[in-house]
Amino acid sequence: MIPPSTTGPINILDAATAIPKDMMAKLPTAINGPLAWSGADFEDEETYTWQLRGEDIEEIDAALQSFKSLGLDGDQVDRDNFPLPNLAARLSQSARVIHEQRGFFVLRGLEESRYSVEDSTTIYLGISSYIADKRGLQDRKGNVLFRHSAEKGGYTYLSSVSTAFNELLAEDPSAAKTLLTADWPVQISGRGAKCYLAPALAIHDGRLMASIDPNRFGPHPSSGPTNIPALTASQQSALERISKAAYRTELRLHLKTGDLLFFNNWALLHRRDSYTDGDETSRHMVRLWLRNSKLGWAVPDSMLPPWYAAYGDNGVRTKLYPLIPMPDYKVPKYSAGSAAFMIEDSDASDDE
């Protein structure tokens, strides 16, 4: 869905030239609301975990068989052909949790060993279609779904952008102002590297929104000689300050085999420990980018190019859903709204 401020398709380079350098508004005293939380607020994972019951699993299994009987391609799975009559209402409420409340939840109870990779993927897509109706592209090849493997490491952490930003407002307002100023060079192409200028954070429609990817700020080492400007000293300092604030208030998730994690990429920062696949054992993570046309946050023009690359009319006709995990974890190139992860083996098996 194109944001209300956009009248038609936008070429990513045209959008870049139209973004003003300074979109600063008066700094707020604090960002309040349910999205301003700290990891210490969640003493019990049951507060954000939805445990599926036996009858829920039976309904999901019936939806899987119903979809398979239609002979449709996996890309076509949606809430109309993956019927969950009893779970639908709670999934819709969970979508509101992502967009209007704490910004994330974990769905638990699916036993991966009961399903083939194809069936597991169909279930993942079917359930996520009740959370959001659009799936974003994650690269120019048309990949909608990414699978990663891991032997050790790979823990997932979430932190509230609002909470981290509030710390900067109180202790270093100049860093907060730097993050809100639309002069951060964001690389949009690795070949013939180009960039556009955008803020790392924006306050839009009364919401604090983040598009922070250190791997896309400034010139990337793999690009070779380029005219993309490097980050200024104040930008580097601001990025370090908000990263440290996020680390101090983050929530470490103890994900288990079969867990589905849904979270709001605009409102929360996330990270994962680095990891590599082993010779005999592995852990798979499946990633989707999702957009709810009704509940999804309006995207400010200054953050539109990567969003439009994922959800706009980008010319990609064939969408890919790889079933074989990639051997190494690759950091996403940018954040593009809400995201969902599915764990196909347990974080609990990792060494501390």
From TrEMBL:
Protein name (Swiss-Prot/TrEMBL): TauD/TfdA-like domain-containing protein
Gene Ontology molecular function: oxidoreductase activity
Sorted UniProt keywords: Oxidoreductase
Organism annotation: Trichoderma guizhouense
Pfam family, one: TauD
Lineage top rank: taxon: Eukaryota
Annotated InterPro entries: AlphaKG_dependent_hydroxylases (IPR050411), TauD-like_sf (IPR042098), TauD/TfdA-like (IPR003819)
TauD/TfdA-like domain: residues covered: 148-289
